Every structure is written in C-alpha cells, then in structure tokens.
Amino acid sequence: MVCPHLDVTACKDKYSKDARILAKLTFTNIWKSLMPSFQFMSSKTDLYKTCEIMKMDIRYASQYEKKLELTNSYLAHLNQAQKEHDYYNANIINAVEDSKHNPNVVSSQILFKSFSEDLVSIVNRFTRINFNVAQRYLNGEGFQYYDFKNYFQAFKKLPHIQKYHHFYFTSQHSGIIFFKDNLDDNYESFTICPFSFNADTPLPTIDAKPLSQKRQEELYKEIAPYIDLPFRSIICSEPKIQNKK
C-alpha cells in the first residue's frame, strides 16, 4: 500500500498494523530510479511509436554487436521515414500547383456557406474593416443534402485498403485508383468505377423530413425562449396542428 503521507505510522494506525506501507515519496524515487524513461505523455506529445521503441532497444542493449545492429536498423528506419516525408511534401506542392491550372470546374462542386440570418449578422457586426464577410449558400435559399451513401453503392471497394500508404488518381485513367504500400514499391491498379462516370451529372438529393409534432412542441416550449425575437418564429415556430387520420 502506498501512503500519500510521510508518516507511515499514521497510515498503519488508519488501515492495519500488519499492512505493508510504503511512503509515496519513496515509491516515486524507486519508480524513477528503475524506470527513468517511463513518463506520462501530454496530449500535445506526438512521438512516433516505432522510433521510440527502437531507441529504447538501443539504450538497453547490453551486447556491442546487438547495439550496433539495432543502431543500423534505426538509422535505416529514419532514412526511409525521411524519404516518405519528402515524398509527401512534394506531392502536396504538386497538388497545389495543379489545382491552380485545373480547368475542370464541375457543377457538382459544393460551397459550404453559412445560411443563418443570425450568424450572418453576428459575423458582419463584429468583423473589423470588413475583413470577414458572411456569405450564405445560394443567397440564403438553404443547403441541399446529397445522397452520397446510395450514390457510392455502385463503386467497388479496394480490398485491404488500410495496409496501403500511397494512392493517386489521374484523369487519364478515370475510375482507376493506383496504390502501393512502401515508397519503393511499384504501383498497382484497381478499378473502383466500372461504369462510365460523368462529373457533371447532378447527384441525387435527400429531401429534408419535416419535424414530428412532438419535436415541434419541444422546440417551441424549451428552446424558443432562448432565441432572439427576430429569429424565434423562423427557428422555433409555433407547432402546426396535424390532422390525425
């Protein structure tokens, strides 16, 4: 039993004379001396697990040959990780540059903008020198919700997709995904769209279902009092009486 106080005798009197008591300070000192590398990471710590394990193996290797072998493996791992890092950054730069010269702007592209009059007024009221200007989707007509779930049912899933780390698409091979595991591997291909695909074809939409009578009454009674008067009738309007058949 770890005693949070220095007075071990007081802990024995509180719990039991036969209890094996260890002062918290003594426990902490033993912990730190036997496991100096053990620590609780903060939420902001982002250490690569494989690197940390390999460094620990090197630190505690007792034989010179084993330590040398582990060190070489660690350096090879760092070299491969750096290649992956450079490859990733290069692709990000290429993607940004390609997007600047991409003439294929399709009608199905979606712009997400605020649609609430209340939110628009807040943004416009508190912005400085018109640095931020609130815009509403379709001039306030509202959003359209697309039925992506059913739309993608016709597409094929790439088997074991989680084991691969590199992917790319190209307009020259529409409907085909290229993938590989390691950076030095050759790309493999898989057809995920086995049908003719037209990017300008409008997607099916989902009609918004009206609120139930119970939900309307709940909003009107419990939520409406907290909404500003100019918007109360819009957000939490008085429930409509539904005719029961």
From TrEMBL:
Top-level taxon: Eukaryota
Protein name: 15847_t:CDS:1
Organism: Dentiscutata erythropus
